[in-house]
Amino acid sequence: MKTMIAGLALAASIFALPAFAADTANIWVRADGSNFMPRIVDAFNKAHENQIKLDIIPNAEIIPKYGAAAAGGTAPDALSLDLIYTPAFSAAGQLEDITDWAKSLPYFASLSPAHVKTGTYKGRIYGLPFSADSSVLIWNKKLFKQAGLDPEKGPTNWAEIEADAEKVNALGGDIKGFYFSGNCGGCNIFTFTPLIWASGGDILSGDGSKATLDSPQLRGAIDLYRSMVKKDLVPAGAQTDTGSNFFAAFAAGNIGITPSGAFAIGALNTQYPNVDYGVTFLPGKDGGWSSFAGGDNFVVTKGTKKLAVVKEFLDFAYSLEGQTILAKYGSLPVRGDIAKEALKDLDPRYQIAAEAMAKGRTPYTVVFNDLINSANGPWTQMVNEVFFGDDVDGAISNAQETMQSIIDQAPQK
Amino acid sequence: MTTIAATSAPARPRKLVGAGRRQWVGLLYVAPAVALVVVFFIIPLGMTAWMSLHNWPLMGEHSFIGLANYWAILRDTRFWNALRFTGWYTLVVTIAIFAVAFPLALFIERPRRLTGFYRTSFFMPAVIGFASASLLWSWLLNVDSGLFSPAAFDLGLTEKKVNLLATFQPAFWSIIAMVVWKVAGFTMIILMTGLQSIPSELQEAAMIDGAGPFARFRAITLPLMRRTLALALILSVAGSILAFDQFYIILRGGPRNQTLTAVYWIFNQSFVSFKLGYGAALSMILLAILVALSMVQLWLLRKPEGVD
């Protein structure tokens, strides 16, 4: 909230700058970006004649609000958009085709591949990477030490996750071994599917046309979580956590291990400096690792007259200065070729998250919201049932069927 | 307006021209109200009806598809399930609200010591918004950091902390408890005004005739409160059928989508699946159901023959 207010104040001050500006473009960002976005916009406005006016919109409202604004002809010139929505926005014909410009960028090949993949629709590019967040596993070093574990060594496969969690859990009292948000689709696509990917499975086919839930890898990962729930290593609240405790549970200092995201590094360092934690990759069953590639794509509203300003701003964001500002205020760099340099003065744990990002994956589908994020969609319902319910087989086949029918009914254009 | 003109015409007979002019004056007087209704009700309703005939995505082009949305609703089993749940919830919560509000109304109706204090405290939750009340209760109901489960555990009532929101029955009844807490005070006030409008002579006469308290309640209080009951009932039923906030904020439609209400489903279709046209069609259906239900209630509680 504080950052929101600061962000809004910044946005307001940007707007109040004396108007030498040749041109002003309006950009929206969701509240997740309220930390880094005002900083980079501010830096841009100070160094350029053209100006950016930034609006920060609550996460849940940015899509409906943009839809309404687009229908009324008052959409912003550009938008920092949760990358999973880029296929749906492109399919709706809402976005400017920026293929030629994108391919003319000398560093195009080193832009985050997961972002570019979701930003591409039918061979044309509609979105380019802006901010990035990868999924990682974090553990509490203090609790590891108390439990007699090596505090510098995080788990590297599923058996180690369970064994370590069990040891930490044995400390008793309010301390629990493991945490996950058991009723949150978005949290689990971000942190649970990497366990499946790292073991060689997937939940959707590459083009998003087939749901592929029923795999031994998914069942194996489910067994891991179920076993930890059964052994009481997970707090009771996990079953009904719709995501509000996704970060807070670990930050309170009573949780041994939790899957989380790169964002947690910045948040823990600034808000919970007393929590001593380690960062490692989300492992597969027998080692290996994977990550979800999250974050925002930068998209341009179709027909905007401020294209030049918008391009100038994105150029600035891609410069070393821009990438460093982003990294410093909570987003991973999206340019692979200068990521190391942008991160060099920051917490070394970011390097792991950046490495995870470079190989991160994002499911490609125009109905991501319906399938995955919706609190009442098949994915959310399935994870809750398979982790805590009695009928794993029924839950998987039910979700498989529902997801496939949603995919089949999606608008084909 | 025509009724006003017609009833006042015989009192001061005038020529037709005058009556016509008075109609215009009357129209002028109600014009602001009519304008409000047109702008904020008739036009949006018309637009909803118009949208319901289209494939109208949140973004991009919309196209006219006639009644296709309505045909799709017929096959939308999840909507009908949501409607069935909404019906069950409405039935339970309405009975619960009246079961609490009626005794409260009887209790606070006559002035006695501390009546003002009781009235105020029973009514207090009604002034909180549904969303804020839901947020408050979602904390109270939280298993790890809330009030009920940890308190029951610390008092030794339960062996371990029970997650009230994890299974259907406790989650459903928790919501019922929250809504009763929130709404009963309001219903109580409505019922109280009804009770106070009953002339005390009637009660006294019945008492002299030897009627006991139960007979007086059944033969005098209830029949004379018909209209008040109708008002309270329609408000409660309409409010319950449109329930959304508490299920969205506290339960997210869970556990396992068992508490999805009709409005929740409309919200999901419109703003999660981005199908505004389909959401509009669902809204029209719900509107029709609500109007029909209200008419049935008014008919059931109509003024019977021979009773003033």
Please describe what this structure looks like:
The complex is a heterodimer of chains A (413) and B (308). Chain A has 413 residues and is of the alpha/beta class. Chain A is globular and about 65 Å long. In chain A, α1 (2-15) packs parallel to α2 (37-47). Helices cover 45% and strands 16% of the residues of chain A. Chain A is built from 20 helices and twelve strands. Chain B is mainly α and 308 residues long. Chain B folds into two domains: 2-41, no CATH class; 68-300, MetI-like fold, CATH 1.10.3720.10. In chain B, strands 1-2 form a two-stranded antiparallel sheet. Chain B is flat and about 75 Å long. The chains are: A alpha/beta (413), B mainly alpha (308). The interface between A and B is medium-sized, with 33 and 28 residues. Chain A: This is Sugar ABC transporter substrate-binding protein.
Chain-averaged pLDDT of chain B: 88
* CATH fold title of the largest domain in chain B: MetI-like fold
Largest interface (CB < 8 Å) = A-B, 33 and 28 residues
CATH superfamily of the largest domain in chain B, by name, is MetI-like
Q: Give the overall pLDDT of chain A as a whole number.
A: 90
Uncertain segments of chain A of ≥5 residues (pLDDT<50)? 6-19
Structural class of chain A: alpha/beta
| Helix content estimate of chain B | over 70%
Instruction: Give the helix tally of chain B.
Output: 14
Q: Could you name the CATH class of the largest domain in chain A?
A: Alpha Beta
The number of domains of chain A is 2
Considering DSSP H and I runs of 4 or more, what fraction of the residues of chain A is helical? 40-55%
Structural class of chain B: mainly alpha
Task: Assign the CATH class of the largest domain in chain B.
Answer: Mainly Alpha
Head-to-tail CA distance between termini of chain A: 40 Å
CATH architecture of the largest domain in chain B: Orthogonal Bundle
Q: Could you state the order of secondary-structure elements of chain B as H and E?
A: HHEEHHHHHHHHHHHH
Largest sheet of chain A: 8 strands, mixed
